[in-house]
Amino acid sequence: MSNKNLDICPSVAQELGVTEWHPIRVAARRTGLSAHVIRAWEKRYGAVTPHRTETNRRVYSREDVERLALLRRSTLLGRSIGQIAKLSTEELRRLVTEDETAQRAVNSGESLEMVPTTGHSARVLNACLEAAKELDANRLQHELDSAVVTLSRPVLMSDVIVPLMQSLGTAWREGSARIAHEHLATAVVRTFIGGLNGAFHVPPSAPQILVTTPSGQLHEIGALLAAGMAATDGWRTTYLGPSLPADEIAGAARQSDAHVVALSIVYPTDDPHVATELKRLAQFLPPTTRLIVGGPGASGYRSVLDEIGAIQVTDLESLMRELQALRVAPAPE
Q1: In order of start, what are the domains of the chain with their CATH numbers?
Q2: 288 φ, ψ to 5°?
Q3: pTM (2 decimals)?
Q4: Distance CA 277, CA 174 (A)
Q5: In Å, what is the CA distance from 143 to each residue of 82, 167, 272, 291?
Q6: How far apart are the first and last CA of the chain?
Q7: Sign of the dihedral defined by the CA atoms of residues 27, 32, 35, 36, in that order
Q8: pLDDT for 147-182, tens place per residue?
Q9: What totals of helices (H) and strands (E) does the chain contain, helices first?
Q10: 210 three-state secondary structure
């Protein structure tokens, strides 16, 4: 793409020695970030500094696009954008390479088998999986409590809690674990995340998020993980449990002045009652509260979510990107 196509000032292009510029929509497509997130990362974290065309449009060099892509990959691996935005591009490359290598090792574990890798977080994860496999709730609680001392909260969530619950969910669906294993771990993790959220000081100015599932949605693993991840990013997080009616969710949002309500939908994917509850919730929520919906079953309600203007996320990584963007975005009128 030439600079002429973007009407960038020729003298600026010549001075910078850059002949390839990309508008924000191209940068978004090439990096996998939304234009909204790119602008938010620029404004709050100084992640990149785009140049401007003669008509004041943002344009990004090839190096800018590479840097944004690296930042995205790093956040997908559990890093906070606030921690990595000031790193040099070369430092980002090294960090992403190291984290992706470690993640591939962790992902090579199957179901409830032990994860064949080294490192303290991997050992904690293995111990938690073993405790869940043995239906030993006390041991599982002990392993998680001990990990609070030796692991940072983001690492504990991204390297232990998330793969633990995902492994159990996969094992249950594949038949290599019983529902009792999942229920035991869910009960322990629910208590643990509640204590974790209360163990760290969050300033009163931090935004408030409520996490739950709509009425009739009883699977809460996704909601628990969402609550934990939001807490690691500095949100004042309240987990309300599963299967709440729309009026109860909206009432809690109004009482707590929630900036965001996050819902997890798993199964079924075609329940008219859930569709009705989503519409009612959109009517009852305060206008300043944003609604985020995700989970394996959320795509079944896409038309309803589009209709009510909900933010749709496909996984925990996209949830984190949206939350990071909402922290700096002005509240809707």
Answers
A1: 4-97 (1.10.1660.10), 109-199 (1.10.1240), 208-328 (3.40.50.280)
A2: -90, 0
A3: 0.60
A4: 31
A5: 29, 17, 41, 34
A6: 38
A7: negative
A8: 887 887 777 887 888 888 878 877 776 677 788 888
A9: 16, 8
A10: strand
